[in-house]
């Protein structure tokens, strides 16, 4: 905890000094108003001692109260306000769990056995409030414009974040023009000097139709009959896609399944051919590339193995000759 004291003050001065004059607080945080006070050693030949110290919130309460802390009653208002100073020169106040109603001016007052003093040049606590988005009834689509506003009472510049990464924008409103799917993410903001996200997170979810749709096969596009094959349809889109698998049969297309993956055990006569998928959502549809699947008979494998064995035997016989 840092306390800042004023140097060079004469012992004959009555003074209350606050540092800084303005505090930008974040909801839920704890802040300290650093404060120092001074008074004469004597007044009318009488030694002065401090008998009572108190803090008030709001100009109407600066002199007569009610006070949020008073004398040694450190938790006069529950645990919200805590006097962390003393009765010598330190008059600092700590505010716990800052909320909206804590915004405003604060002043310190002390009473001695022969006079009192109130620091009228109060310190001001402003609350960094929140972040808002415009109320929209339709989903955000590519090409739309979205404005994000950082609501705050502080005079400091704003810092914006996307997925906790700092952005260059420093104004209180972030304008997302001609928005694209790349602008989707979690946005937040804070007073610039904090250098970290402090507001609640606003999710920007940009919807768009399917693109870059393709088909892949496992284990290979050339397989033996009786093998298990998986065809996978891939595409980029938001929201979730609907899938339809087709097999080209001459001049027509046969519908086969309605999920992203198509799995089957291949037969020689029924599964060779060309496959593609069609993906769609409420923003559009797109056909994938075409995949050619070739199924080979088991006799092909047997013939190939026999040829390799014959070749091997011929070589071996040649060496023995």
Show the helix and strand layout.
Blueprint: E1 15-19, E2 22-26, E3 31-38, E4 42-43, E5 46-47, E6 50-57, E7 69-70, E8 81-83, E9 93-95, E10 104-112, E11 115-118, E12 123-132, E13 140-141, E14 146-152, E15 158-162, E16 165-166, E17 173-176, E18 185-191, E19 202-204, E20 206-218, E21 222-224, E22 228-238, E23 242-249, E24 252-257, E25 261-265, E26 273-281, E27 284-287, E28 291-296, H1 298-320
Parallel strand pairs: 2-12, 13-20, 21-28
Antiparallel strand pairs: 1-3, 3-9, 4-5, 6-7, 6-10, 8-9, 10-11, 10-12, 12-14, 14-17, 15-16, 15-18, 18-19, 20-22, 22-25, 23-24, 23-26, 26-27, 26-28
Number of domains: 3
What can be said about the biggest beta sheet? 8 strands, mixed
Which architecture of the largest domain does the CATH hierarchy give at level 2?
Sandwich
Number of helices: 1
Fraction of residues in H or I helices: under 10%
Mean pLDDT: 83
Distance N terminus to C terminus? Answer: 97 Å
Beta-strand percentage range: over 45%
Organism: Oncorhynchus kisutch (Coho salmon)
Protein name: Ig-like domain-containing protein
Domain Ig-like: 140-205, 210-292
InterPro entries: Ig-like_dom, Ig-like_dom_sf, Ig-like_fold, Ig_sub, Ig_sub2, Ig_V-set
